[in-house]
Amino acid sequence: MIKRLIPQTEKLQIAFEIRIADDASTDAEIQKANALLAEQNQCIYTVFHENRGRTATRHFLAENALYDNLLFLDADVLPTKSDFLQIFEQNLGRAQVIFGGIAYPKILPDPERALHYTYGKSREGRSVSKRKKKPYLSLVSQHLLIDKSVFLKYNPAEENAYGLDPYFAHRLEQHQISVLHINNPTTHFGLETSASYVLKTHQALQTLVRLEHEEKMPRNYRPLQRVAQQVVKRNLQHKILRLFKTYEHHILKNLCGNNPSLRLFDLYRLCYYLKLTLEDESN
C-alpha cells in the first residue's frame, strides 16, 4: 500500500509524514517488508513487542503525529484511485471526519471467505448517497481522514476489543462531530475465512452487550438492537432461541458454505445477541 501511495505524495501541496506501526507481528516476511518501508523518505516505523490492539495502536500513532489531519489506513486495504491522496487533500476542512467508502474485489478470491466477502460487498460497499442516510453508522475505520484533536478525544483508547466502530461512531454523533462522505474508496483485501468471521461476529456482539451493560452505548443505536427490542416487546425471545438451538448447526453450515445467505446471517446475529443479553440480565 505504501509503495502505491508514495508516488501520490509528490503531488501533495501540504506537509506530511507517514507513520507505520507493527503491532507485535510474528510474521518474519511482514517484518522484513515493513523495515524496508521505513527506509522511505518521511516514513516513521514503530514496532511493538506486545500486541496493543488496533484501537490503542491508532491512538499511539495519533499522539505522535506531527500534523493536525490524520489519514488512517489499515494494512489490508488499497486505494482504488491514482489520485486518492489528492482527493482527500481537496476536501480538507470541509468536515472533521471524512470517509471515502469501502470497496471489495470484483470476484470472490476464495470460497472459504464467502461470508465476509458477501456481507462486506452488500452492507459495507455502499454508495455515497446511501452512506449519507446514516452518516455515523456508515463510518468504517479501515480508512478515515479525521481531525487529530477529535480523534484523540473520542477514540475509545481505553478499550481493547473487537467491534468498537459503532461505539466510536456513537461518540462522534453524541458530540455532533461533522462527517463528510465522499467517493474515494479503498478496496478491502484482508478477508477472513467464514469460520473466523463468525467468531469475530461473536466478539463484536459481546463487545456491544458489555458496552450496553456499562451504559456506554444506548440499547437502540443499531438496527440489530432495535429489532431485538421488538422481539422482547412481543415476548418472543425464548421461543426464537429454542428454534435457534435446533437449527443453529444448519445455519452455520450455510454461513460457512460457498453461497451464504445474508438473511440467515442477520438471523444468526440477532439470536446470538438475544442470547447474550439474556445471559447479561441473569448475571
From TrEMBL:
Residues 14-107 form the Glycosyltransferase 2-like domain. Coiled coil: none annotated. Gene3D superfamilies: Spore Coat Polysaccharide Biosynthesis Protein SpsA, Chain A. CDD domains: Glyco_tranf_GTA_type. It comes from the Bacteria. Pfam families: Glycos_transf_2. This is Glycosyltransferase involved in cell wall biosynthesis. It comes from Leeuwenhoekiella palythoae.
